[in-house]
Please model this.
Amino acid sequence: MSEGNFTLDGEDIPFQEGQTIMQAAMAAGKYIPHLCYHPEFKPHGSCKLCTVRVNGRATASCTQRAASGAVVESNTHAINDERRALLQMLFVEGNHFCPSCEKSGNCQLQATAYELGMMSPHYDHFFPNRPVDASHPEYLLDFNRCILCSLCIRASRDVDGKNVFALSGRGIKTRLIVNAKSGRLADTNFSEADKAAHVCPVGVILKKRKGFAQPIGGRTFDLNPISATPHPTIKEG
Amino acid sequence: MSTQNTSDTVTAILVRHQRDATRLVQILREIQEQEDWISPEAIDTLEQELAVPRTKIEAVAGFYSFFYTRPKGRYRVLFSNNITDRMLRNIPLMERLCASLWVERGKVSEDGLVSISTTSCTGMCDQGPAILVNNMAITRLDEARVDAIAELIRAQVPLADWPPEFFHVEDNIRRSDILLDTVLEPGDALRTALARQPNESVAASSSRSWREGLPGTEGGPAAMLDEMMRSRLRGRGGAGFATGLKWEACRNAPLKPGQQRIIVCNADEGEPGTFKDRVLLTRRADQVFEGMTVAAYTVGAQRGFLYLRGEYRYLLDPLNAVLARRREEGLLGSNILGVPGLDFDIEIHLGAGAYVCGEESALIESLEGKRGTPRNRPPFPVTNGYLDQPTVVNNVETFVAAALIALKGGDWYGTMGTSKSSGTKLLSVSGDCARPGIYEYPFGVTVARVLEDCGAEHTQAVQISGASGVCLASSEFGRHIGFEDIPTAGAFMVFNKSRDMFEVARNFIHFFAHESCGFCTPCRVGTTLLKNMMDKLAHGRGSLYDFGEIEKLNQILLATSHCGLGHSACNPVLDTIEKFRPAYERHLLHDQFVPAFDLDRALAGARQMTGRDDDAAHIGDME
Model:
């Protein structure tokens, strides 16, 4: 396998043929903010938080193959400004109330907003009407917090072989659906053993009766910033 | 409709499509044409018989504007809402129809008979205001026609029995040049291409392709490719990629076992203000298919698709008739024109109301029966297109030009136009002018010349290449149509001095927000934010601050969007802010920031529910 080097914010990063910029950066211990990327799944490239400049050209680092000699900029004032705006967009298009959210402290959206110093939602909230689905005996779906990253879709399809989740609708009306005529999670074959039950970066797919078992303040990103542990194993409860 | 009937209907459709899940968009369209909507029971049958998860079917059904997973009535009326329709007063006509039929805009009538709503530009800007009724186009709406339609719906007259003149679509060809003047006999261009012999250098350079067993070993394909290169033809969809290079890349792309090369004609003419492909498909269908066949011969493709936008549903049967005739004439099918191994056939897929499917990788996703989300690129379609096979995607006009080049040669074609833009361009002229319609010019024509020819007077601005294009002020009318100055897919919308350019831009922003596929964060949320900001200005709550916000959003959309839709979504606003600032300043009533939230407007729903509109039901801003 051939290898090469590119620079990330001035530092040499080695890579192997076929690796994306994101993969090579993570292997080198460098953090590029991201939400829809997860090392165990096929890159999707939709949240655009990982957008970097490669030789001056903007591109998503999770889908862009690394190329020898490329000059990649990531941690710059201008790029982080864009990322903060993207985070603000994700906050206002859904209903995110961190102080009362079961996932607070374990939420990658919240942790990334802290990491990048997002101080306010800035834009006007959309306040969409997204009813929760509490039909399943063990799991709750709170669609208010969905950022449409598709990690649960990929996990259910590619790992669990179940296709429990999908995106329907279009544009700002895009929404997460489940595989049942009733539209209810209880009527799918979703189970706690599924990979899809454990990949949600925000607080949509939640184990019931465990929400506050671990107090806020001692949770994953309360203790360490997300740049130090981008993909920690998060204990539920 | 009983559940058993639905199941039988769906099964019959599935049998016609060989239970092939890659044909899901076509299957859903046919279900809706027969059942008026896509019911949960219809999806039950699909799920069982296609053996695909329900999530996949609902994901696709939910993506396209023209698919309804809730009943929308037996008559579904959609008013084209492009700015040109607005200028022809489509909204009062829609309100008249709503009032006449006692139905609220966007809702279904209580008896379940009819729904009335708006849709993106339907490609009838030269004869608007236009509507679609159950996806069939009706043009030149006026009050009399609206009243007649209301009566037909009330009497539940089947659409097939409506007056045929309602459905008449004019071609409105106002100026023609080589493309529209040349009428080819079916097969002429192809015969000429087959007879072409390569010179030695062309033959040598393509020897690699021969070893891969491409058809036509006498050398014609390489010679034809050489003609394409000499013609310097560039794609007519707007981006202007060299057609010869695209064909060569597809021809040279390696095939995996079981794969074949694919030719796709992009007739998803969704850019607001564009209707040239509609006219080409009406008048020059043979030439479109002949161009595709020449492309197939040149790159070694066996399968072709015409992806026709859903708004042009009325063209489906005539186009299928042309294909059938060409098969009989030996111009499609096996051993075309008697050449052993020259096999190629074309089928037509219809879109279902999704502008983003005009983007070639989204179009291919839709052809595969999926949501029309643009792919991550690279890889590009020329190597990994339809079902991962090497695929050429070209615009309708590009194929018509290719047929002409096959007949008359690349050098001949290359002499026309300018150095970087050879040949001619069809312009779809609409808006404030005496003679809207199709104008064909050699590249290099000035905007002023087009304005003069179409009888435009007191022109304030011209929007070229649609919502994603460029807005020109009168000081720029000396500029030239062509890739070196103003590239265009063909839209040419004229606005006279009475028009509010702010409202023009606001219409385009609403269009982008409606058509964003929703895949990436910046476009999904950003286009709606932009729409809200424009509405805020329209509601008289704008300040200088909002200008700054719009410019900031543009930077984010440009840098981070997944495809061209997001990249160009801010163009209409930025162009008009720069060139027609007074139009905005009329809406900037405040020096300081004012929140978008308006207490009085927020109470509108409550007023409607209580049927009140007295003073006490209103509340002023708290100062």
Observations:
- Chain A has a mean pLDDT of 95.
